[in-house]
C-alpha cells in the first residue's frame, strides 16, 4: 500500500482555503486506498498534541523556535520542519514525500527526501512572494521577494516532480526554464460528497438583515471570504450605488474579515448605498451555508495583479457547487474557472462601473439563471471534483521511480 507524507505550512483544525484543499486531497487519496499523513511547520499555530488527529486525518507537528530576525527566522523554520519530517518518517516511513508550498516546506522536504532516498513531489498553490505583495506584507522586487523566488526555483529544480494548481502557474515555471514534462496540473476542486442539497433560505435571517421589501425577497449579491486588498471588495462597494440605479432592491452581503475590513466598513458607511450593504463578520464554518443560501449571485471582483492572473481561487468553484450564480472579474485566474455567459459572467477588473453593469444585466435576466447554475455545477462535476482529480496524483507518483532512476538517485 502506497504511503504519502504531506509536508504542510498548516492544517486542520485551522480553517483556511489551504487547509480545505489539503483535507480534500488527503481524503480523496485515502479513498484511493493509499495511507496518508501530514507534517506541519511552525506556522501551524493551533495548540495540540505532537501527533494529532483532525477530521479523521493524522498530522505530525514540528516543534521548536525560529526566533524573530527576518531571513534568519525563515532559515530556522526550514531546519525545524526538517527535523519534524525526520521524526515523522522515523515512525512511519513513506513511499513519497509530497510537499506543498510555500518553498520553506519544499526546501525541508527535498533535503530529507534525498537523504533517505525517498521520492519527492513539490506542489505549488501560489508563488508566496506574489501572495505577500497581494496581502500587503511584501513588495515586488524587494530583497525578500527575490530571495523567496530564488528559493522557489531551487526547490522546483531539486524535486522529482512538480504539481501546480493551474495553468497560469505552470506556464510561469516553464518560462523560468522548468521542463514542461516535469509539471502536472492538479486543479483546485471541491469534495462534492460534502455538498448535498443546498441549504434552504432562512426567511427569518433574511428579514433580520433587511433582505425583504413588502414581503418580497431582494436580489442579494454576496461575498464570503477573506478581506484582502487584491479581492477588489472596494470596487464591489463602489459599484453598489450604480447597481441600485438599475436594481433599487439589490443588496450586498459581506461575510468574513481580514486586513481591509475596517477600511471597507468605513467605505460602505460613507456610501450612498450604505442602506443596502450588510457586514456580518467572521462566522463559524458550519454556519456559512446559511449565508450562502441568502445569496443569488456570488461576486469575485479581484483586482488585476501578478497574483490574481496566475492563481485560481477556490471560492468560485464552491459557489458553483452550491448552485450559485458567479460573477467575477476577468483576471487570468478567473478565466481558467469561469466561461463567460456559460458557467458565469466576467467583467473587466478594477472597474466599478463595469462590475455594476454586469451585475445589473445578470439580475435583469432571471431567465438565464437556471442555465448558468446548471452549467456551473456540471463544470465542477466534470473537471473539479476531487473524487476524479485525485487520479492526477496517481499518475505523478507512478512516474517518479523512473524519473529518479534517470537522475541517478536511489529508489526507496
Automatic annotation (TrEMBL):
Glycosyltransferase subfamily 4-like N-terminal domain: residues covered: 17-189
Gene3D superfamilies: Glycogen Phosphorylase B
A Pfam family hit: Glyco_trans_4_4
Protein name: TIGR04063 family PEP-CTERM/XrtA system glycosyltransferase
UniProt organism field: Novosphingobium clariflavum
